[in-house]
Amino acid sequence: MATAPTVRKIINDPVYGFITIDHPLVLELISHPYYQRLRNIHQMAFAHLVYPGAMHSRLHHSLGAYHLMGIALSELKSKGVSITAEEELGAKLAILLHDAGHGPFSHALEKVLIPGLHHETLSLLIMEHLNEHFKGQLSTAIAIFKGQYPKPFLHQLISGQLDVDRMDYLNRDSFFTGVAEGVIGYDRILKMLAVKEGQLMVEEKAIFSIEKFLISRRLMYWQVYLHKTVVSAEMSVVLIFKRVLQLLQQGTVLSAASSDLDFFLQDREAGATIKQHLDRFCRLDDHDVMTSIKNWCYHPDKVLSTLCRLVTERKLLKIRFLKEPVDPDRLAIWRKEVAHRLNISEEEASFFVFTGKASNTTYNPKDERIHILFKDGSVKDISEVDNALIHYGSSLAFGEISKEYICYPEESKI
Amino acid sequence: MATAPTVRKIINDPVYGFITIDHPLVLELISHPYYQRLRNIHQMAFAHLVYPGAMHSRLHHSLGAYHLMGIALSELKSKGVSITAEEELGAKLAILLHDAGHGPFSHALEKVLIPGLHHETLSLLIMEHLNEHFKGQLSTAIAIFKGQYPKPFLHQLISGQLDVDRMDYLNRDSFFTGVAEGVIGYDRILKMLAVKEGQLMVEEKAIFSIEKFLISRRLMYWQVYLHKTVVSAEMSVVLIFKRVLQLLQQGTVLSAASSDLDFFLQDREAGATIKQHLDRFCRLDDHDVMTSIKNWCYHPDKVLSTLCRLVTERKLLKIRFLKEPVDPDRLAIWRKEVAHRLNISEEEASFFVFTGKASNTTYNPKDERIHILFKDGSVKDISEVDNALIHYGSSLAFGEISKEYICYPEESKI
Amino acid sequence: MATAPTVRKIINDPVYGFITIDHPLVLELISHPYYQRLRNIHQMAFAHLVYPGAMHSRLHHSLGAYHLMGIALSELKSKGVSITAEEELGAKLAILLHDAGHGPFSHALEKVLIPGLHHETLSLLIMEHLNEHFKGQLSTAIAIFKGQYPKPFLHQLISGQLDVDRMDYLNRDSFFTGVAEGVIGYDRILKMLAVKEGQLMVEEKAIFSIEKFLISRRLMYWQVYLHKTVVSAEMSVVLIFKRVLQLLQQGTVLSAASSDLDFFLQDREAGATIKQHLDRFCRLDDHDVMTSIKNWCYHPDKVLSTLCRLVTERKLLKIRFLKEPVDPDRLAIWRKEVAHRLNISEEEASFFVFTGKASNTTYNPKDERIHILFKDGSVKDISEVDNALIHYGSSLAFGEISKEYICYPEESKI
Amino acid sequence: MATAPTVRKIINDPVYGFITIDHPLVLELISHPYYQRLRNIHQMAFAHLVYPGAMHSRLHHSLGAYHLMGIALSELKSKGVSITAEEELGAKLAILLHDAGHGPFSHALEKVLIPGLHHETLSLLIMEHLNEHFKGQLSTAIAIFKGQYPKPFLHQLISGQLDVDRMDYLNRDSFFTGVAEGVIGYDRILKMLAVKEGQLMVEEKAIFSIEKFLISRRLMYWQVYLHKTVVSAEMSVVLIFKRVLQLLQQGTVLSAASSDLDFFLQDREAGATIKQHLDRFCRLDDHDVMTSIKNWCYHPDKVLSTLCRLVTERKLLKIRFLKEPVDPDRLAIWRKEVAHRLNISEEEASFFVFTGKASNTTYNPKDERIHILFKDGSVKDISEVDNALIHYGSSLAFGEISKEYICYPEESKI
């Protein structure tokens, strides 16, 4: 008689029904404070300002990606692809922890809080730290995560055009925002995955699903991720922290709501010695940032308090996409007007009137490839497949599209 | 030609698809900071510790209830029930604001933060304050909310056995937790609503839907709202704040992460003069509480820091439902053991070993009634309807069921 | 490297997403004409007259039950229950074919078309026939189906209080009728299945899901399966065939639209030699019946043609549930009136005015049992579990409830 | 007090929840035998051979389109577009009856059963017939249907690039096939509809939803409507009827299972006098065709009986899409082989080996247009909108794509 597994935990997930945890190490990692922290970091930062349902956490996303990884590996095994138990666990752990290095409002604050440290680097540092703690049990996971494991498809499932990370976040973000049109046919794509010569590919009959997947992504970018209100809110948070750092440099008395966030604001060299501060970093979450912003609404610095109120009261800067770059002279005039109205310097007015760029690439065949496996065993990139929508106009419609925008206070006549 | 409405805003909602805002006053109220605050208060407090999807906010719930109110009123009007535009707006505003008085972790902290002030009282104060600001435009809403409006069914839609508040939260909480079995057939019930002599009732053929609704509620209570982990987490937060207040009373130096929360911790009489502090109250949200708890993990008081770590690291006290009350002598022994192990006093140990009671009433015919309207015009309470499940055993199965529990540290042998 | 399976077919199912066929014998059986026939038999007979979506076929239901069986067995295996590949295939084949013996409009016509032959008997005959054809490969399936296999839980999964047959049809029928409230949490129940001493049971924490399941079933019975229009349509078809048999006995010239249906109408002893006519039986489907009814709309016999038009034009007999039995004298008067109006004999009028009984048992602990397995290893019937709704009033609310009804033409004043 | 409507019927629909009928004329039309007939015509003909859930009827589709029309008109009215009660009813009736002229397996048999009569012509004849019966109450509906009503947008909602017919069938077909990826965001598109100068258009922010809609359509065509098995089954039915007509012309004794179908097979000029035979036509449904095919399995003509068995036993001809046209010489050789193997003439073999063409146009700007209405009041065709995917490569990817195919018996080596 088979031995019952020692661990079997079922987690309800509105997106997939149930997520099953059936390995003790997975359960231990999920219970670790480094992982639990992700509970308090919104997956979609400020998207909930526009889509009130979008409150889901990075923890929930990474559990979802873990679930999809399990399905993907089962499907591949049922098609005869050789995957050992060790590799399966490795790939699952790697996807579970792939976002562990995200700080609060990461997309916005990554470059501000700890300059020079990309979240993937931090995820890797965290995995290595946990690998020590768990006595080498994460070694395979780390090799897969770094792309150094002999079976490339395992890494491609974590990071590639058709990885389970992307599948989960598109699906989950569509689900929680209520943008039903963004939902992707992840189950069909997973059933069509194949491996040839170690590379991840999809069967020919998945072509239309892949098209739909790329179009969904396009829709989610323009309708959700780059929604004007969301971009404006994120820019406000970036500027709040830029102002805070400026003020600190000038010696202004200013503290964050938590000592952990304070530490990273004071010690601008923390990135260089991050390994010593990993514990501290792994205590930061959205609460530290949001409570600080709430407190700073009453700070004597007018620029800072005004920016903070924009966010807490959701009276954000207006934003408009531009057909052509703004004339620097007009920008100067607008800033002058704001400076005058708010009684601040013109330089300070650039916190309220500024331009930026939002961009998105649906499918760039130069970077990465979606390989289509035909019944006769031949392989083509999807952009070369006859009849595929992407075949036509890939260089145009699916390449990077970027839009410049300008932000300004509602009261300004811009 | 009809005049186009001046306001028309569509909000994506994964539960209902779209929520339409088509009155300028509704839009203004939603944009008010008092309402926006609800964005940062979880509808289900700590339920996300068990159901990671349950991150939705009180703002989202009240928008949903507002949406259902619109449907309910349309249905009733299409059946010939007279409802004026003024009354329709009033009922919608009342449900929109019915939860505005909730503080952070309200269920747990209501009696601790501002003793003696129920959240409904605060909702009413907030409505009255806004009514001044909006020059009396909320007067009908307030009369309906207080149950003083001549058409009782309007109040019953806000607060009664079949109110849209309950319909939305059961539905929304089921949706976001992923406990699909809790989903209720709100659309069918709404289509079956009727009014007779000013009282809200449902048509006969809704009986099976109502049964299902009551059973769903029962399931949600036992499986979700009173889930052991959720109860344990909420009790921890209650005890954290009890300890904080104790320490403050003893003169210990201790501050919350935000000055707003600090104010209410320091001024224990704030409830009596709450009208003067409404602005302050309406800035409190989950961030203040959570950041404070994170900070207090490092407070020198062992009881406080230990309790705070239980919550932040999700290493909660164990909890067990009891078949019979705990023998006080055994409780004393257990507390002694904990006191010894943690090197604290026995009195302090009662923060870690304690008993409590979780309870739920599915349908108590004594309190409120679900009226069934028959085709022949007669009316019966559902508990008197032949063939209705609830008819049998209502006194037992649907009455209040309560369970005692005991909490204790994982290390204790209890 | 593992060998790829020789068969792997994926079938889209709106209820479960995808159904995977991964064994060549399953594929061969599905492709067999005996099985393909089920495509043309509505699972819910005339329910589509009320619920237009309810057009799904018996083939679709049995594929769905097959899918659930696969999940149930996987779950049990993952919990350490020993199930061999042979047994797994056997249980899957048994459920796939469990309804193969259904004729067209089986619920209504079973006793009329081939008297004395229950559909389960026919399913077994068909399995035995196929077993010969497939050289004994169905022997385990047959043993399981008959309840003669040593591991009782395998049979209980096919036929019992919590079998996958019931789970699929409740779920599928809810889905296609659009009676969303009937949807059951099949996935949660499947995850909670357990086996102890060979018996199928569910874990303690499934109690609320089971309650919901029983209530859903109750709702589906009263709202859908025993819907008045559906009952009236089914009774009409029964009476059409009774009249046809009467006319044939009287020597009237009358033929069905197909020679296969004709055969069974002419040869009233076919049941006794059914093994010889299995091929013929396995060509009958809804088309034979419906085309015959359409043709008979023009038959000279007034009773027959009138009944047939009731069905084809969906102008069905009225039906009313009765609080007490109808007085035979009044019945006679009503029949007289109809006889007079339609210019038929009083005996013939009994085809248009008649009484009958609709009934349903939600959970009858005398018949079968739902065993609850507690954490401490003890087992109780759900009706004995403390706190279970069913505990109270099981004898009343969950026992058989039956309602008498009367059918009559719309024009009659009854 | 408002008067209660005299009619209020709610129909469960798994796709939209509930469909409300609130006008007595709509209810009368739905109850008419001409409409009820649609209950027995599959919306998707043989698609259920591949997608077992696709059993829904034309009646269900037209109810769904009727429901969407109601939503579309409400939305437009709420935006200030003037629509009278008369027009609203007219548009709803027109869409309700737009498919009334479909015969069984219409897509396949339209040109065979009654040559020269398009189903739209028949729908119009039926509406005119009903208009007489209902004393002119359908006059507005007919004017709208014919595109002769002064407000063009009403006709465009029935037949145009964004009509509710298409929205419902894409949505409903996706739903019932379980091809979830085909589901379109109909609710968002409906909310974005607008009217300018009498023309139907969509607001700018609907662009991504429209793109998704076009891509879904593309996917449904290639994956479902033009699925090889479906095309093969439809071709078989076409050839069955071609053979039947050939045999009848040769004087062979042959009859259909119903006298109604027989009539149209015998009287090849019925199309010219169809007004006299409308009752007969409106009794034809899938049952007549399918029972006939079942009976013909035993007809002495080998070509006919073989073709019929292909369909009833679902052992269809193989089908392969071709990269280039088949060489006529090879076709002749293959036919010779089949003729020899089946012992039929070479001419008769062309019923088993033949070529054909499947085609689809996603969006052909030459034919019809999707107008985008910008905030500044300007209007552009979607193919001219900057940034729209369709902008690039519209001439290629979205134009007509057609594929030639060849059909042949499985045994042939082709």
Structure description:
Four copies of one chain form a homotetramer. Chain A has a domain at 9-206: Hypothetical protein af1432 (Orthogonal Bundle), CATH 1.10.3210.10. Chain A is 49% helix and 11% strand. Chain A is built from 19 helices and nine strands. Chain A has helices at 24-31, 33-36, 58-78, 85-97, 106-113, 119-133, 139-146, 152-158, 164-177, 186-192, 207-225, 228-249, 259-266, 278-281, 286-296, 302-312, 328-342, 346-349, 394-397, and strands at residues 9-13, 17-21, 193-196, 199-203, 318-322, 354-361, 371-373, 379-381, 400-408. In chain A, the strands form three sheets. In chain A, strands 3-4-7-8 form a four-stranded mixed β-sheet. In chain A, strands 5-9-6 form a three-stranded antiparallel β-sheet. In chain A, α3 (58-78) packs antiparallel against α4 and α9 (164-177) packs across α11. Chain A is globular and about 70 Å long. Chain A starts with 8 loop residues before the first strand and ends in a 6-residue tail after the last strand. At the A-B interface, β1, α3, α9 and α15 of A face β1, α3, α9 and α15 of B.
Task: Using brief descriptors, characterize the structure shown.
homotetramer; 414 residues; alpha+beta; Hypothetical protein af1432; 4-stranded mixed sheet; 3-stranded antiparallel sheet; 9 strands
